[in-house]
Design goal:
The chain is built from twelve helices and 16 strands. The chain has three domains: 250 residues, no CATH class; 57 residues, no CATH class; 112 residues, Serine Threonine Protein Phosphatase 5, Tetratricopeptide repeat (Alpha Horseshoe). By secondary structure, the chain is α+β, with helices and mostly antiparallel strands. It is elongated and about 90 Å long.
């Protein structure tokens, strides 16, 4: 997975720690009601000003934040903030952060957004709004509530560059104990709108990154399954959705076959790479798409190579560093490496549900999930590569652990031995099961 697809890890760690404190029942600070100064004015807007007055040099961002914070917070339900300015807002939204925006037309704009952990009684939603300011009067140009976000850090909103003609704003929020929400917004001078949204059970839900190097970043939405066993178990099935800007909206960027007008050899290699990727055989998919790139220069092939690499690298990292190499390598599609985790043991240990492949590993206590994941993943791989002996063997192993009387378990082991009669592990296992 590209390292620059992630925001700084410290931001997500701060968010997790913030939510854990809430989950531990930390007591809320006594609320302090806010009053709005009569000197603060907010214009009803939303028409943008053609020639906004620049701020006096003596006016600081802190001054402006204090002004707008009081105004916005006062309009929310449960208008209370912690007594200490640096305290976590256990009692509700804690305050408002103000971020100056770069505007291509030179207009002076800010994005204001609430931060802290929202209240549920009474119910609050975080919000984000675009403002300009003229003659000491704030003018709101656009506003959106963020109803799917429970918590926002003070630095959770950032201006990013996606495509010209709009201001792009990225929001990373938290839900529950450790889940993340990603939202990409755009503002065209008149309308503030959502362009992409994503959720993941980890803090990292999405990001922007220029995957293909064309200067226009894509949106990467994290679709990883973090509960293969349990969240803290660390076994993850990495997956992503990618969105690209088509000039008017974000659209999915997906693996695509070549048309019939493309050279036959390149078309076959490209389409085979897609089949292998969809079957979870990522090393072979990378090899096939590399062959297609040699045979033809085509933007479809290049995009397919980019998408395959994105997931393949993430799963390769998991296979290398994950806590349960047997399943991590199956998810990557490296069946030779998965089989290597089994080789040190005798068949009597391999086909023992209380044996060393389960007991004492992270899979202990998740035997049912293990059997399901191995069976489903190997079956998918065999649909694309029917002579994959290791996949037959591992599927037979999982089926046997689920039900030693299941005839399909022995049938799979025997099929593995027929495909690769020179593999001692297969032959010994067939003899043991008989």
């Amino acid at each position: 997975m590209p390292k620059d697809a992630f925001k700084p890890a410290c931001n997500r760690l701060m968010l997790v720690l913030l939510l854990v404190l809430v989950g531990c029942g930390a007591p809320p600070a006594p609320p302090m009601p806010l009053t709005v100064s009569p000197d603060i004015q907010v214009s009803p807007g939303p028409s943008p000003l053609a020639s906004p007055t620049r701020l006096p040099l003596e006016t600081t961002l802190e001054d402006l934040t204090a002004e707008l914070s009081a105004t916005i917070i006062a309009a929310l339900p449960s208008t209370a903030i912690p007594e200490r300015p640096d305290a976590v807002g256990f009692g509700g939204i804690a305050g408002v952060e103000l971020l100056p925006l770069d505007s291509s037309d030179g207009q002076q704009l800010w994005v204001a957004y609430t931060y802290g952990i929202r209240s549920f009684d009474p119910h609050q939603n975080h919000l984000l709004a675009i403002y300009t300011r003229n003659n000491d009067v704030w003018q709101e140009l656009g506003r959106l509530e963020l109803p799917d976000i429970d918590s926002l850090l003070e630095n959770a909103v950032e201006q990013v560059q996606v495509a010209p003609g709009r201001i792009w704003i990225e929001v990373e929020g938290g839900v529950g104990a450790h889940s993340g929400v990603y939202t990409l917004l755009s503002f065209d001078g008149a309308t503030l709108r959502r362009e992409a949204e994503g959720f993941n059970s980890s803090p990292f839900a999405g990001a922007t990154d220029d995957l293909n190097g064309d200067g226009v970043p894509e949106v990467i939405l994290n679709q990883t399954e973090n509960y293969v066993f349990c969240y803290v178990c660390g076994v993850r099935l990495w997956d992503f959705d990618v969105l690209g800007w088509d000039g008017s909206q974000m659209v999915p960027v997906e693996l695509a076959p070549l048309s019939n007008t493309a050279p036959a050899e390149a078309r076959d290699a490209n389409n085979r790479a897609i089949e292998l990727a969809q079957a979870g055989l990522w090393p072979e998919a990378q090899e096939a798409i590399s062959q297609a790139r040699v045979l033809a220069q085509d933007p479809v092939i290049e995009w397919n190579a980019t998408l395959i690499r994105l997931t393949a690298e993430a799963r390769a990292d998991q296979a290398r560093d994950g806590p349960y190499p047997l399943l991590d390598n199956i998810f990557y599609g490296d069946y030779a490496a998965a089989l290597d985790t089994v080789r040190p043991y005798a068949p009597s240990e391999i086909f023992d549900a209380t044996g060393p492949l389960v007991v004492g590993t992270i899979a202990q206590g998740f035997e049912f999930e293990l059997q399901q994941w191995v069976t489903e993943t190997t079956t998918l791989a065999l649909q694309a590569q029917a002579d994959l002996a290791a996949a037959y063997f591992l599927r037979g192993w999982a089926r046997y652990l689920a039900d030693p009387t299941d005839p399909s378990a022995r049938a799979d082991i025997e099929q593995a031995a027929r495909i690769d009669p020179n593999e001692p592990l297969f032959a010994e296992s067939v003899a043991y099961l008989r």
